[in-house]
Amino acid sequence: MTAISPPGSTKFQIDLRRHLREEEEDRDLTRVICEIADASKYIINAIRTGDLGLAGTSNLYGENQLALDVLSDRILRKRMIHSGVVANILSEETSEVIEVDPGGKYSVAFDPLDGSSLVDVNLAVGTIVTIYEGSDLLQSGRNQVAAMYILYGPRTSLVYSTGRGVHEFCMNQLMEFTLTKENIQLQPSGNIYAPGGQRNLYTEGTEKYVSSLEEKGYKLRYSGGFVPDINQILLKGSGIFLYPHLRDKPKGKLRLIFELNPMAYLIEQAGGKASTGRQSILDIKPESIDDCAPIFIGCREDVERAEEYIARYG
Ligand code: AFP
User: Fold this and answer.
1) 92-121 per-position pLDDT tens digit
2) Using CA atoms, how far apart are residues 266 and 36, in angstroms rounded to an integer?
3) Which residue among 120, 149, 182 closes a domain?
4) 231 lines ligand 1 (CB under 6 A)
5) Closest ligand 1 atom number to CA of residue 117
6) Which segments constitute the Fructose-1-6-bisphosphatase class I N-terminal domain (predicted)?
7) Are residues 141 and 234 in the same domain?
């Protein structure tokens, strides 16, 4: 049962660092998570005041980078390099692993500003982070020791898990992240769906599955931002997000290391499920840093039903 913060309750004035300390989390892991939380303050400022134009460069997927992508990447990278506890860094905005300190206990991969193309139409965007022990960032998602995201919306919120539940914090007037929800749990099935990708390129199995959701009265909630769309399902405890295999993109669009693994970790920690339609996202062994995969993620029964349609119809 998700614990929700009654206004003024002392338990829920706990800030992020104290929550990690009370969870007796490893000090170096606490350092990484708190450094990322601190970096978000500079990213917020960049979003609000920064140049929304193109940076004149492209990322490892060949996509044009926005100045905000490059700036957000630089902010996070600098904080990780100076943290003193990070071995390697991998960003969606760069094309190779950055070796920081062979003695660093953790390695971090991040999408510094996912959905950045939505900023110029004033929609919510986010930072997505995945953390592994050691220096290997091509491990399966099952080996993550922590995952988190920061959502830059009407409010700035932070969601993290280190394997002992999923917890939400919101930024207060002092730009501190204070606990708002603890041990978030998804219902077995939901009533909203977020269908990514072009519907006319869905395979028969996905098309039949989505039609079955609509016949059951599921409401469509899709913003084009992975972080706000997942956050809505997580906090409402209800629904499924899909960016499936498409006729012209059998691997879908979303990135395994930077987007799918961290969200799959968080959703499974909240009692949900994350699948390619045929296997668990967290069991995929990445072959390269730019791997993509189809995804059906959210309430367990909703994902299992999707898997049944994909198994039967493709
Ligand atoms: P950008 O980071 O290029 O804006 O893409 C955002 C994203 O990776 C993810 O946040 C969304 O869920 C997905 O793409 C939306 O893709 P479509 O625009 O094809 O629906």
Assistant:
1) 998 799 999 999 999 999 999 999 999 999
2) 17
3) 182
4) no
5) 4
6) 11-182
7) no
